[in-house]
Amino acid sequence: xxxxxxxxxxxxxxxxxxxxxxxxxxxxxxxxxxxxxxxxxxxxxxxxxxxxxxxxxxxxxxxxxxxxxxxxxxxxxxxxxxxxxxxxxxxxxxxxxxxxxxxxxxxxxxxxxxxxxxxxxxxxxxxxxxxxxxxxxxxxxxxxxxxxxxxxxxxxxxxxxxxxxxxxxxxxxxxxxxxxxxxxxxxxxxxxxxxxxxxxxxxxxxxxxxxxxxxxxxxxxxxxxxxxxxxxxxxxxxxxxxxxxxxxxxxxxxxxxxxxxxxxxxxxxxxxxxxxxxxxxxxxxxxxxxxxxxxxxxxxxxxxxxxxxxxxxxxxxxxxxxxxxxxxxxxxxxxxxxxxxxxxxxxxxxxxxxxxxxxxxxxxxxxxxxxxxxxxxxxxxxxxxxxxxxxxxxxxxxxxxxxxxxxxxxxxxxxxxxxxxxxxxxxxxxxxxxxxxxxxxxxxxxxxxxxxxxxxxxxxxxxxxxxxxxxxxxxxxxxxxxxxxxxxxxxxxxxxxxxxxxxxxxxxxxxxxxxxxxxxxxxxxxxxxxxxxxxxxxxxxxxxxxxxxxxxxxxxxxxxxxxxxx
Length: 566
Known about the structure:
Blueprint: H1 6-18, E1 21-26, H2 82-90, E2 95-100, H3 113-120, E3 123-126, E4 130-132, E5 135-137, H4 139-154, E6 161-167, H5 172-186, E7 193-194, E8 199-202, E9 205-212, H6 220-223, E10 226-227, H7 232-244, H8 247-261, H9 263-269, H10 275-284, H11 288-293, H12 295-307, H13 316-325, H14 341-354, H15 380-391, H16 398-407, E11 423-429, E12 432-438, E13 452-461, E14 468-472, E15 475-481, E16 488-493, E17 505-506, E18 512-515, E19 522-528, H17 531-545, H18 554-557
Parallel strand pairs: 1-2, 1-3, 3-6, 6-9, 9-10
Antiparallel strand pairs: 4-5, 7-8, 8-9, 11-12, 11-19, 12-13, 13-15, 13-16, 14-15, 17-18, 18-19
């Protein structure tokens, strides 16, 4: 995204409000040369009364100027001045720690002061080479980058982080190439995505190479990466915003910032005053563990109340800025039948702010006019092309991503999932693959002392009519709920003795599995529907089971339209 656009600058401001901590690690931090010692006797300067009389001033002879237009080379190009760095971050409300790295300091486990701070920092700035008596080495920095990325891939939760390599090296491109080679060689098959010649993105980590403005001789391309000490804060915030600049992500960051600011207000709602009342509630329940499960929903409700306050929404002005800032591979106005880019931009703004229903069919491009059709399937082909019209062909799976976000619970925990209402599973047998949805109520999925039967509803794959989108590996699968009773199967599972739940086991690739009691079927955990979506499936199944079959005159049935089955 173009960093000069108003939308990106707004995204930078949102990121700056969200960021809290930065850690700068450099072995040349706080290095101050010793002041030269004075030699000889200290003599007071002469005063007007003690000074000897001088003769006439000699005529001044012009001498060639010793000033040069060239900037002298910095005698310490790898130095780091902490004060302007700390002050720069402080001006953005970010707490910055500058640590002096010693030659024997380790940045990777076993954990020490450097690795602990590096793990929790939103922004980590580290030098490229550590200076030793026998020379210089970048191995520790490469090891840190490799470890940070690997932990972010393998461990949970994943941290969204920016790591900046801040160096006095002349060849910044060479530094970037060495980092890229190291990550690609050690982190396979995790992809390393290039973001220009000096930045990489892998998982939730972004790495960027920046140069200290203390050396001369860099190429014009590398000079764009030069940052002075007092500019380091602004530049790293901008680099962080490259990961978060988006309409929805800006709202998410704003919501998280607001929750952090309202922490004291939230804690006041859950003060120690209610401890006794909660224990009363717990004591009166048949199962005391059930009370513990009631805490998460009421805490989530308080967080939701803060997020829903005015301010966490997308304005029409932001949509307009986003449309201007979006980067297309090529001009698309001729492809969609517009005479000029301005015409396309105007219709896009009307479509995104007023909605499709407010536009006439002839105002839309031909490929999208079926959106105005009244009869089903109401423009299925146009629905799939609408995201391309608005966002371009860069994100072809954006609709599936949003559908999953709205329909499935995101799993942040490293603990294995358990079988409950809304669990979506894949059964892969010799006769083929099939998808299943668990309909067991949550209260009947816990506190299990012996094997229990779970009702599983078979899901149909359909690209046109579907209500669930899941991801299997790298592929998206569209599933349709078929609530007819004969699609239901009952399968028995054994609970985990220590948890009283049907827990999944995890294989070496991180996939979760549920084994049936008779060990004839092994289901792969795919995801878990949000409660409302799972409850809708239960309601549809119950509605199908509650149908009343009658023997009646067909002549009469076709006239009895008031009962609802047409």
